[in-house]
């Protein structure tokens, strides 16, 4: 599948240090503790590629993983962790918005949300920032194992209905890193971005 040969490439914490390359990047973003590292580890089948931590807000850098010669997976810093001091949060939020809006090699954004807390204010902020670029977005509602099958599917429908008005082209899916659910659906959605 798409992400299987991933290996660590570089970590950066300043905009001017972003690697220059001629390939494509797929970025992963989400609130701290949403389950982003676990999604990346599940998609790449690497247990510890992205660091899974019980301490939210630990991933304070942009981590690049090389998928193959011309394709990179970009793990963006988790946002929305209240205990991060304002100055640091401000630094990361400007870095995120600048990255999302100006990175030419970025082909699409994957937004990770805990299915129990979808579409929070900062998630909507990310949608707004990135939609300006006209590039595709895919939402992964993870930890779906935390809800019953019915509740998970009704949440999926609610999220789709809410996006319909302003972001009709954004795709949404259920995922569970714990139960390994939704991997092929995610692969399919993201594969389309690099095929074109
Ligand atoms: P990140 O901060 O967004 O990278 O989130 P992590 O991947 O570190 O996950 C945060 C917490 O949620 C950890 O305690 C994980 O074990 C847990 N978690 C992540 N994904 C799942 C999932 O699919 N199901 C369940 N039940 N727990 C999960």
Q: Quick check: average pLDDT?
A: 90
**What share of residues is helical?**
25-40%
Distance between the termini: 17 Å
The CATH level-2 architecture is identified as 3-Layer(aba) Sandwich
InterPro entries: G_ENGB_dom, GTP-bd, GTP-bd_ribosome_bio_YsxC, P-loop_NTPase
Family: Belongs to the TRAFAC class TrmE-Era-EngA-EngB-Septin-like GTPase superfamily. EngB GTPase family.
Organism: Nitrosomonas marina
GO molecular function, one term: metal ion binding
Description:
Keywords: Cell cycle, Cell division, GTP-binding, Magnesium, Metal-binding, Nucleotide-binding, Septation. Belongs to the TRAFAC class TrmE-Era-EngA-EngB-Septin-like GTPase superfamily. EngB GTPase family. Pfam families: MMR_HSR1. The structure is a single chain. With 196 residues, the chain is of the alpha/beta class. The protein has a single domain, classed as Rossmann fold (3-Layer(aba) Sandwich), CATH 3.40.50. Helix content is 35%, strand content 22%. It is built from 5 helices and 7 strands; from the N terminus they run ββαββαβαβαβα. The chain has helices at residues 36-44, 86-102, 121-131, 149-166, 183-195; strands spanning 7-12, 24-30, 62-68, 71-75, 106-114, 137-142, 171-174. A 7-stranded mixed sheet has the order 1-3-4-2-5-6-7, sandwiched between helices. The model has no long low-confidence stretch (mean pLDDT 90). Guanosine-5'-diphosphate binds next to α1.
């Amino acid at each position: 599948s798409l992400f299987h040969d991933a290996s660590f490439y570089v970590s950066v914490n300043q905009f001017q240090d972003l690697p220059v390359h001629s390939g494509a990047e797929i970025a992963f973003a989400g609130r701290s503790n949403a389950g982003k590292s676990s999604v990346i580890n599940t998609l790449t089948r690497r247990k510890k590629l992205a660091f899974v931590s019980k301490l939210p807000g630990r991933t304070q850098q942009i981590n690049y993983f090389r998928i193959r010669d011309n394709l990179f997976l970009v793990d963006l810093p988790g946002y929305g962790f209240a205990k991060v001091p304002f100055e640091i949060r401000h630094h990361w939020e400007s870095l995120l918005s600048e990255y999302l809006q100006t990175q030419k090699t970025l082909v699409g954004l994957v937004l990770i949300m805990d299915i129990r807390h979808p579409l929070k204010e900062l998630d909507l902020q990310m949608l707004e920032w990135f939609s300006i670029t006209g590039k595709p977005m895919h939402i992964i509602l993870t930890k779906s194992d935390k809800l019953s099958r019915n509740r998970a599917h009704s949440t999926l429908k609610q999220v789709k209905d809410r996006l319909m008005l302003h972001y009709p082209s954004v795709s949404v899916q259920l995922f569970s890193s714990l139960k390994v659910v939704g991997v092929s659906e995610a692969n399919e959605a993201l594969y389309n971005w690099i095929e074109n």
